[in-house]
Amino acid sequence: MTYKLLLLPGDGIGPEIMNEVREILGFMDQAGLASFELEEDLVGGAAYDAHGAAISEEAMAKAHAADAVLFGAVGGPKWDRVPYDVRPEAGLLRLRKELDLFANLRPAICYPALADSSSLKREVVEGLDILILRELTGGTYFGQPKEIVDLGNGQKRGIDTQVYDTYEIERIGRVAFELARTRRNKVTSMEKRNVMKSGVLWNEVMTDLHRRDYADVELEHMLADAGAMQLVRWPKQFDVIVTDNLFGDILSDVAAMLTGSLGMLPSASLGAPDPVSGKRKALYEPVHGTAPDIAGKGMANPIAMIASLAMCLRYSFGLTDLAARLEAAIANALESGLRTADIMSPGMTQVGTNGMGAAVLTEFERLSA
Ligand code: NAD
Ligand code: IPM
Ligand code: MN
């Protein structure tokens, strides 16, 4: 079986961290662990500079044809003034929407070696293993109208629309309950039903779905603002958190800091399984962005990107042993005391992107011998 992978490194640190993933893919191929057919293309600012669009039609076609997409990051100050419709981030949003990648899994795991790297106390984060499930194709990101209207009196009005239909809430809810069954069997649904109609519907649909099909799973409802507070107060109370597109974006950056750095958090964006082949469209990307402040310096942490590859092996290819081995390689590299600048602490050895990527690869090779 040869897997068709599309690599979209993007901008800023995107290409730097993707290089480390390419090395690991090369080793897997060469060692006969898995066989890959790699395609590569531009996305984001790089695509805008080349084609005047944040993603070309050719790259979209490659994404549709691929078994999975590995995505770096897009955006940066260079493109702050480009028209809204072709800004770098539009390339990522188009991929999510056109591939219908509605389920975004953002696991926040505190590796034992990093229990002292978080801004929170060791006892708060030690052993943390939670999963934020973010709805990714609806809500304020895509709701219409979405525009700036000139009111003609010297005033303008900026409009974004939060919209959710029953089926959108139900399908992300199902993913939440199914995932919880493979973990600690608890789902916390976060919305703001006290001020938002979409929150009222979200709450109703989750409650009905739970009663109908998932009564064996514990379901808890939490207002999203209180949820943000609980996430930093005592995050270990959570197992699976399911929430909308915008709240999920914000809460997952908060969760990242529980693990030590935004440079640690991977993600998987999944579509529905095809009724005939059972295959699902998928894109894997770190939760972080292009880190303009450190781009080009070779100091970015590649672990979120490498852990996104591990999620790809698990969720797209069913290579669960290899995925677990790659995650163990990450843990071992951290245990050996190597740190990129973002997770550096006293007594540890600081390395750059290449140094950390090479250390993970060496561990991966050792575990594969
Ligand atoms: P960011 O995630 O790029 O950076 C936030 C902070 O985290 C910075 O200090 C950065 O140095 C640090 N950081 C992030 N990733 C790191 C890594 N791997 N290793 C070490 N440190 C890391 O967020 P931002 O600065 O708000 O956004 C910059 C650009 O990235 C914007 O254009 C934004 O739209 C874009 N962005 C893209 C994605 C994506 O492509 N998925 C995600 C978030 C932000
Ligand atoms: C993320 C990013 C994106 C989002 C941007 C770059 C469009 O912040 O993946 O978390 O807001 O979804
Ligand atoms: Mn984000």
UniProtKB/TrEMBL annotation:
Residues in Isopropylmalate dehydrogenase-like domain copies: 4-360
Pathway(s) served: Amino-acid biosynthesis; L-leucine biosynthesis; L-leucine from 3-methyl-2-oxobutanoate: step 3/4
Cofactor note as given: Binds 1 Mg(2+) or Mn(2+) ion per subunit.
Site (Important for catalysis): 141, 192
EC number: 1.1.1.85
Positions bound to Mg(2+): 225, 249, 253
HAMAP family, per database record: LeuB_type1
An example molecular function term from Gene Ontology annotations: 3-isopropylmalate dehydrogenase activity
Chain's role: Catalyzes the oxidation of 3-carboxy-2-hydroxy-4-methylpentanoate (3-isopropylmalate) to 3-carboxy-4-methyl-2-oxopentanoate. The product decarboxylates to 4-methyl-2 oxopentanoate.
Source species of the chain: Propylenella binzhouense
Record family assignment: Belongs to the isocitrate and isopropylmalate dehydrogenases family. LeuB type 1 subfamily.
This protein's name: 3-isopropylmalate dehydrogenase
Cofactors, names only: Mn(2+); Mg(2+)
Keyword vocabulary terms for this entry: Amino-acid biosynthesis, Branched-chain amino acid biosynthesis, Cytoplasm, Leucine biosynthesis, Magnesium, Manganese, Metal-binding, NAD, Oxidoreductase
One GO CC term, this protein: cytosol
Amino acids binding substrate: 96, 106, 134, 225
Pfam families given in the database record: Iso_dh
Catalysed reaction, written as an equation: (2R,3S)-3-isopropylmalate + NAD(+) = 4-methyl-2-oxopentanoate + CO2 + NADH
Classification via InterPro entries: IsoCit/isopropylmalate_DH_CS, IsoPropMal-DH-like_dom, Isopropylmalate_DH
